[in-house]
Structures are given as structure tokens and as C-alpha cells.
Structures
1.
Amino acid sequence: MTQKRSAGDAHDTYPSDEFDNPPAGPVGVHRGPRSLAVRVVPYVVVLLVAAVLGLAAWGMFSGNLNNLSLPWSSNQSSQTASTTASSTSSSAKASESSSTASASDTASTSSSDASASTSSASPSASESSSATQTVNKATSIRVINGTGTSGYAAQKRTVLTQAGYTNVTASNPSGNLPTSSVVWYQNETDKATAEDVASSLGISTVTQVANISAPVVAVLMN
């Protein structure tokens, strides 16, 4: 009767090699024990990422994402507000300076124009006043007799001579005559003289007329 040999007996028939006697202890590359911090860090990172994602999702669905106050966004908002305030203040100051300068220029220009107007008007007013206030007794004066009374112009000539006039001529009329007594004068410089002649002769009307025979002409009609 043949007896079956066990597996152990079968193995015993092979020659022994290096694998039949393994060394004691672990063989090969093995990781050393990890610290507690290294083992905890992955879990902390996962929790933070989950918290951020959850907060972002809540903000998107609730509509409050823009109202979330993050540390970096608060600093950026403060800088933006400060920059905007500085720009607004600078613009306001520039506008105020421009307005002040414009007002000063306008006031200066108005003052200069007023001074120029006053200075330019003063000589004219002075000349006009001087011209109207000067009575020239040597001015050539012609007295015309339009009454038909003989010698009437000569009588009035004597009145003017006695008043100080040195160049008075009495003559008869030629051409059209006015309806009442009048004293005519050619230029504005003769107005004061014409008014003085009219006062001396008792004539109330004094008129400027161009192209008359003398600087001052007294026409006697009554």
C-alpha cells in the first residue's frame, strides 16, 4: 500500500535556498512613523475648503454674495474709498480755485474797463463843458433886421457892442426868414456865445444851423 506524502514532505524533496531562511525583522523600504500634525493637516484643509465652498454656495443662492465681507475685500474697499475721496477733494479744490481765478479776472477786467471808460469819457466831458461855458466876445456876429423897421439892426448892434462884443455887423435880410426872432450858431464851440447874444437881445430861441453867413447870426423879427 502506497502512502500519500504530505505537502510538507513534498517540499522537503527540493533543495534549500536563500528564501527558505528569511532574515529576522522587516526587509525592504518602509515609511517611518508620521507626526500628529502631518496626519491632521489634510483633514483641516478639507474642512476649510468645504466651509468656503458652502459659504460661496449659500451666498449665490441667497443673493448675499456681494455683501460678504472678506478680509482682503475690506482693505481693497478702504483703499478705493480713500482714492475716490482724494480725487473728489482735489476736483472740488481745483474747481473752487478756477472759479476764484475767473471771478478775480472778471472783476479786474470790469474795473479796468470802467477805469478806461471813465478816463476816455472825462476828456470829452471836460472839452464839452469847456466849449459850452466859454463866451468868445471876439466872435464874428451878424445881426439881421427882419422887422422892416429902419435902423433896428443897428440899434441891436449897439446893445451887443456895449455888452463887450467887438465884431458885430448889422445887415438886411436875404433869403428866407424865420417866423420869430432866433439866434443861429454854426459849431458847438459857438453855442455859449450864441446863448449870451440871445440873452443880451432878449431872444429866447437858440438853434444850431449849418452853412450860415457867420459863426453867430441873430435874426430880429419883432
2.
Amino acid sequence: MLGRTFDSRGGVSVAIIVSVAAFLPTACLAASDHALLPRNLSPWGMFQSADIVVKAVMIGLAVASLVTWTVWLAKTIELRRKTALARQRISLLERDTELAEVEQASREASDAVAQIIQSASREAMLSGGIFDDGFKERIALRLERVEAAMSRQIARGTGVLATIGATAPFVGLFGTVWGIMNSFIGISEAHTTNLAVVAPGIAEALLATALGLVAAIPAVVIYNHLTRSIAAYRALLGDASVMVMLLVSREGDRSLFRLARAAE
């Protein structure tokens, strides 16, 4: 009777031990998977857990995005201010006035149209008031050079937007490739294809790609917008040059007319 009881209890104990032994590997694997999974999958958490190279890529793309918006703000303010001044000067040139008067009004200014007016006045002074075809040609050459210099000045800083828009996706792709490489290295070191091993590297790679797009897309859009605005500003400078040439031509015709009247 006791033997049977012992056998029964022993069989139960053996069954319990076998069940626990079968459960232990699964429990250990689950605990290992939980340990491999990152605790924080937010963008900041993925940045903190990223490789140093991926971190450098993310920081570079964030700086590029900051530069893009800084250039947009600075050039927008500059274009609005200079466009308003150019229109004001052009309205002054459209009146029935003389070159000396508009030069006096813009003597202390340094905007583009003021530079055009001062350059024309300077050539008129150097020519001794002789209004001939050579004088008009010299005026046109001066205005062309001033217009080109002012156009280069207003476009300064926009080239970095084109560079960011062209290179940011490839920089983000480099971070993506590096993150995927880390994922494969993790697979080889852990000797498993469990998702817990490859998830952190994939998340970092995708975050680098997203930052590359966040930096590139606004840069391209802002560059195109500023290019159109700069083209419109250059058209205003061309109008100002034409108005100065017309003013010089009218003054020359008036001088010839006064000489003809005096000869009569």
C-alpha cells in the first residue's frame, strides 16, 4: 500500500519536474526577447540608442533643416524690404524729374536702385554733361554691372538650399544603410533571426530616412520659392535701369533742344 502511494506521488513529482523543465526554455527565451527589445521607441529614444554614426547623420540632418528655415526667414525679410524700396525708387523715377534730383534723394541710401541711380549720376559727372551715343553706352554698361552685382548679392545664401535639397536624401540613405548593417551584425552575434534583434537597427534606419526627407523636401520647396522671388526682384532692377536710361535720354534731348533754341 505504501509502495503504491510512493509510486503515485513519485509519478506526480516526475510529471511536475518534466513540465517545469519544458517551460523553462520558453520562459528564458521570452525574458531574453523582452530584454532585447528597446524600452523607448520614441524618436528621442531611438536617437539615444542609435549607433554613433547614425547619431552623427541625424544631427547633421537636423542642422541642415535648421539652416534651411533660417535662410528662408532671412531671405524673405530681405526680399520684402528691398522689393519695397525698389518700387519706391521706381515710382520716383517715373515722375517728371531730373537725374540730379533723384540722385540727391538717394545719396545716403545703399539699396540696389539707389546704386543704379548713383552710378548713372557718377558717369554723367565724369562725362562733363555731354549727352551723346557714347555716353548712353557707358551708362548702359555701368547699369548692367550694378544690376549684376545686386542680383548676386540678393541671391547669396540660396545655394545652400539647393545643396541640402540634393544631398539630404542620400545622407539619410547612408544612415539607413548603416542601421541595417547594424541589424545584420546583431543577427550574426545573437545567432537568431528574432525580430527583437533586428527591430532597433531597423527603427534607427527608418528614422534616419525620415530626417533626410524632412530636411530635403522643405529645402527644395523654399529654394524654388526664393528663386521666383529673386527673379521678380531682378525684373524690378531691370525696370529701374530702363527708367534711368529714359531719364538720361530725356535730359539729353532737352539739352539739345535748348541748344537749338539758343542758336535760333
3.
Amino acid sequence: MFSLLIGLVIGFGLPVQTAINSRLRNIVDSPMRSSMISFSIGTIFLALVLLITMQGLIVPIATFAQQPWWIWIGGILGVVYLTGNIVLFPHLGAAQTVIMPVVGQLIMSMLIDNFGWFGLPRHTLTLVRVVGGIVVLFGVVLVVFTNSSAGTLKTAETRHASLVLPWQIAGICTGMLSAAQTAINGHLGTVLQSPEKAAFISFLVGTVALLLIVAIYEHGIHIRPAFSTHNPWWIWLGGVIGSLFVLGNAYLVPEIGTGLTVVIVLFGMIAGGLVIDSLGWLGARRIKVKAIQLVGILILVCGVVLIKLF
């Protein structure tokens, strides 16, 4: 029961993190700067976790020579995923910013399993898993492409449903990159014999990449507005929540298995997205959730259960 509660909590925290980072984006006037702050805080937090647990921060030099190059790029993919969510949030709302990447994650995870990419064992697609994928897509159609959901998106950027579609496709693509990051970090955790250290390396690589991108393309690291006393204190929590999400998954997979972890975390993610949308928490745009969308979400979760548990 304790493990299930952890899964729900960290899942709920992911859309909360996206909402926080979106607010931070408005303050520093850049999704890249917002991601940089979040990654930096997450890296510091994970470094403290490693030091407290006496694992150390150093990676053996031989590891760099013996392992494939792609084992170190998880952080880069994480940057794209996190920054993508920050950009998507104002256009899609919290619920869709959760759901569209989930679709991408499922597509990519089935491809990775089927072809054994990133050094993982192959798991050939079965009829049940294919049916599960179809059920997921049907659930997404009910949630996203109904008149009720399209009609709620009336910001200056998304007054017509046709303008929402590119953002939804972008959400699916970021989700695919997130699934690849998870597989890469999982392999790195096995190599380093520490999922915590793998998470730290991923965050560190992402932080360095963002520092360089912001310094070069945004002409310096200008984050002074974030330190204004007029800002809410919680704008600094995005990186900590992201770190806890990674650590929570690292703890849960050995305890309850990958399949059940994904399903429980998904429940938490969708619940968090719906709550933020319906209540307008953390400065998010308030979006009314309709009954047909709840039905679609239930169908989507059933599809995920078929894919991950059978």
C-alpha cells in the first residue's frame, strides 16, 4: 500500500511541476531559462542525496571508454521533454500536457520493447498489447478531439481547434523522447549499479547543456527576475519535484515491477492534470473538465493496463 501511495504522489507531482515551471517561464520570460533553473535545482538536490547516502559523485573513467556514446544523452532528451512541457502547457492545459506525452511514451516504449533498443531485452508485440494501444488511442480521441475539449482552448494562440493539433503532435513527440530517456537512464543505472547516480548524471548533463544554450542563444544567464520578493516561494520547487519523480520511479520498479509502477504513476499524473485544470491551481488557466473526457481517461488507463501488465 505504501508503494502504491508513493506512485500516486509522484505521478500527481509531475503536472504540478509543469505548472510551476510554466509560471517560472513567465517570470524569467524564457522556457529555456525556466528549464535551466529547474534542472540546476534538481541536480543539486540529487547530488545531496548521493552524498547523504555515501554513494559519491564520481563516475569511473573506464566507464566512458567501455560504454556506448548514447548512454550519456538521457539528460539532453530530458531537457527537450521538460522544456517541451513548459511550452505546451499554456496551449493545451495541464490534462492534455500529461496525456499527449503519455501517448508518445507508450508508442516509443512498445518500439523499444519490440526491437530491443538501448540494450534492453526484446519483448515482441502481442495481440493484447496491440489491442491495448488501440484502446489508448480511442481514449485519447475522446479526451482531446471532442468538441468539449477543443472548445475549452480559447487563448489568443489557440482560438481554433486546427491550431491545437500541432501542439498535440509536439506533445506526442516529447513523450517519445521521454520514453527513450527512461530506457537510456535505466541502462545507465545498471552500468553504474545505482539508479540514483544515473538520475544525477542525467540531470547534470541536462543542466550543462541548458547553461550553454542559454548563455549562447539568449545572450547571458539573466534570471534576476526570479529572485524578486514579489514571486511566490513555490516557483523554486519544480526541480525538486522532478528529482523526486525520478527517485520515486527508481524505488518503485524493484518493489512492484515496471508495469504496475507505470499504471499507478499514470493515475496520479492524470489526477494531477485534471485537478490543476479544473481548479486553476498555480496560476494555470482554468479549464472545465467534461464527463466525456473522464470516460476517455478511464478508457486510456484501461489501455495502458493492457499494454503494461499483460
4.
Amino acid sequence: MSELNGPTRVVVVDDQPLIRAGFAMVLAAQSDIEVVGEAENGADALKLLADTKADVVIMDIRMPVMDGVEATRQLGERPDAPRVLVLTTFDTDEDAFAALQAGASGFLLKNTPPEDVVSAIRVVAAGESGVAPRITRQLLDRFAGRLAPSAPRDERLGLLTGREREVLELVAEGLSNSEIASRLFIAEATVKSHFGKILTKLDLRDRVQAVIFAYDSGLVSPAD
């Protein structure tokens, strides 16, 4: 939710007016969501968001002038940046993974039912990942080797305890909190506590970023 527990503020970015209008119509029916702006490309979105506070941005990937991946990357460099849900046609889209690497918290298929769009916005606004862990892992397996060179181990790994590293590895494998708890013979609440500390220590926002960090840091690889 936005400041003072008001409605979740959403900006819709797409080069097709009908798609923007469709999202605006669906979201206008929700008492806890408010569309505070629209833009037709990434460059216009960055200008709009310089003056307009938003909690979530629905960002198309393929747009003229500036695409959604670059806009997401630049937006993520700003303090208190809104969370981004990118729009894609296929859930195995290479650009969808590139957007996650750029800092998006999840993605939506363009044929996603309206109720699922609303649910995804609420999930992301609450600080959770808008994409299932296993899908993130599948994208890693499919594209990560081509999109980024092998990197030396990130020094931030040294901030984690042994148990936290174990949890991070299992998160990167696509396991849920309950599955991790079962694997490690600990309570699910303990898993959540460990994961919260991982996000804080590594300065990450959500599960998607944690999975990508695990790959980029060399902790896991698509071949694992």
C-alpha cells in the first residue's frame, strides 16, 4: 500500500492506447488501487515518475523510444523506486528474464485474466515477488548463461551465515518456504526469518532478486 495506507498507486506504461485503457478500466473498479498515470514508452514513463509517486508500474517490454527493460533498469537506480511488473507475451521470453535482471519484481502475460492482474499488483505492492520461484529458476536455466558472463563470487556472500546460504541456495532452486522447512527440518517461520535477514544483508527487495543474486554471485548456476 502507498503512504498513509491509501490505495496502491499504479502507473501503466504501454505503447498501445487500448491496452492502457483496458488496464485503467479494470483497476478503476478496485477500491484499493488507483491509476495515477499512463505513458506510451519507457522514456515518457521515467519523466512521469520523476514527478508522480507510484507504488507499482505495469511496464510493457517492447516499446519505441525506450523499451521496458532499460526503463526498469533506470527506474531501479532511483531512491524509493516503485516496483515493476513487466508485460510479456510468453512466460519463456528472454526479455522477461532480462527485465527481472534489471530489477522487475515479476511479470504478467498480456492475456492474464483481470482478477490475476489485480492480485499480482497487490502481491508486489506488499513486497512479495510477482512470479513463482520455479518460473524464475526456469528462466535462469533457459537464458542466464547467455545473458550474463560467469562472475566471481560476490563479496556479499561473506555476510551470510552458513544456514542463510543454505536457505538462499534452496530459494534459488525454486523451493517454497514450506518446502525449504521440510528439507532443512526447521519451522517455516524460521525459514521466513532467515530469508528476511538474507534480503536485509544483501540489500535485495524480493525473492526474484534473491534468485538472480544467487546466480550472479556464483553461489548456484543454471546447471546445478
